[in-house]
From TrEMBL:
Topological relation to the membrane, as annotated: Single-pass type I membrane protein
Pfam families named in the record: LRR_1, LRR_8
Location relative to the cell: Membrane
Superkingdom, natural source: Eukaryota
Protein name: Uncharacterized protein
Transmembrane segment boundaries: 214-237
């Protein structure tokens, strides 16, 4: 068993398509020059023809893919993949991994990887299985992950991820909430709804109604004053008795409107502070 960093001599095997260093004692960062594995970085020009005959070879190999041990015999598809699970690798997931464009599976679970999931992980368009569970990853799940159309197995559990789970045609098919488990800051399907979801809450609805009521009474007060002065001004000022009655009526209406406005403003500020 290794008890050192990932040996750089491995990078000399450029045509390597399956790298399995799982369950060792590897420490330190993941090398940034995985793009040297040309056998993994090359992808079919036409993704739909990724399983064509010239991407087949004869071999017997055992790999852990989608959380299941698989044994392939004779003619098998060129399932380019990297498994570094069950080690003590640390620091961030290097950008070099997201340049290995031919990857079908990537397993980095059970390490001490930190920082965030690389934003450009969406470049791995052939990726079908991704396991980053049981690390120390933080931040939000990149939007690019939702664009991986071939993704059929995902495990991001037991990290420190937060924010809304991206929505995408493929991610919506992964309905098992356990794949996001033990990430207290995560929300959205298939976990609980986010507090700031697009669906209005009762508080937001109440605030909107208060704002509408406030504007309504403001416009009503302005229209009332302008309309009465414009249409009844001449008639009312011709008689002292009518003038006094008008002023008293206006004062009463002004008091009622002002009281209602202050009530709406008080409710709005109170609900906003909560």
């Amino acid at each position: 068993m290794f008890d050192v960093v990932i040996p750089h001599q491995i990078l000399q095997f450029r045509q390597l398509q399956v790298l399995d260093l799982s369950k060792n004692k590897l420490v330190g960062p993941i090398p940034s020059d995985f793009m040297n594995f040309t056998g993994m970085t090359q992808k079919p020009k036409n993704i739909e023809n990724a399983y064509a005959d010239h991407y087949m070879y004869a071999e017997r190999i055992e790999i852990v893919w989608k959380n299941v041990d698989h044994v392939y015999n004779l003619m098998i598809a060129a399932m380019a993949g990297i498994d570094l699970s069950g080690n003590s690798l640390s620091l961030e997931i290097r950008d070099g991994l997201t340049t290995v464009l031919g990857l079908r599976y990537l397993n980095l679970s059970g390490n001490h990887l930190s920082a965030s999931i690389p934003e450009d992980i969406g470049n791995l368009v052939l990726l079908e299985s991704l396991d980053l569970s049981r690390n120390k990853l933080s931040g939000e799940i990149p939007i690019g992950l939702a664009g991986l159309k071939g993704m059929s197995s995902l495990n991001l559990s037991s990290n420190g991820l937060s924010g809304r789970i991206p929505t995408g045609s493929q991610l919506q098919t992964l309905v098992d909430p356990s794949i996001y488990g033990s990430n207290p800051g995560l929300c959205g399907f298939p976990l609980k709804d986010c507090v700031n979801s697009s669906t209005p809450t009762e508080t937001e609805t109440s605030q909107a109604e208060d704002r509408e009521a406030l504007w309504f009474y403001c416009f009503m007060a302005a229209g009332f004053i302008c309309g009465f002065w414009l249409h009844l001004g001449i008639f009312l000022f011709s008689s002292e008795t009518w003038r006094f009655a008008f002023y008293q009526y206006v004062d009463n209406m002004q008091a009622k409107v002002t009281k209602k406005m202050y009530s709406c403003m008080s409710r709005f500020h109170t609900s906003g502070s909560e």
